Amino acid sequence: EFFYKLNQFSLNFNINVLKYEEQPVTIYFTGDDGKRHRYTPDILIHYRKDIAPAKYWKPLLAEVKWRTNLFKDWRELRPKFLAAKNYVRERDLDFAIITDKEIKTPYLNNAAFLLMFRRFPVIESHSSLLLQALDEFRETDPETLLQSISEDRNEIAKLLPTLWQLVGNHAVGVNLDLML
Known about the structure:
This protein has helices at residues 2-13, 67-72, 74-91, 100-103, 106-115, 124-135, 142-149, 153-168, and strands spanning 17-22, 27-30, 36-39, 43-47, 60-65, 94-99. It is built from eight helices and six strands, in the order H-E-E-E-E-E-H-H-E-H-H-H-H-H. The chain is 48% helix and 17% strand. The strands form two sheets. The chain has a four-stranded mixed beta sheet, sandwiched between helices. The mean pLDDT is 93. It is α+β, with helices and mostly antiparallel strands.
């Protein structure tokens, strides 16, 4: 469930992500015991090269772990992570350990919420009305925006799905690190 949430919401929604591969490589290494071991990281994330800041980022090879398991299994995991760091250094990649602390954030909740609005049918009149109202603000919040258009609660309720659709499709920028 933990990895599923990272994939489905954070990665699929993140405008900087071009694509990702699950369990993309197996890394072989010799352990302190002199034996050959193998390690398969969870994910390789490729970033878009046509937008900043993503165009400056190297692809990211990552392990996704519950924080408690990371600490509990550190002795077993550390040699694997060191092997991964050597692997990425030789291939111009980055390596990271992603835990529930980095994933369970308002961003994840917002992405999960907004992804369902991407499939809503476009109502051009609502989109135009919202985008025109947005042009008059430098920065605003959804409530202020909607109330600038109408004070009728029924009208606001009709516009709200289109607003979330615009945000979900990245036509309107918002700070997804704050709860919507």
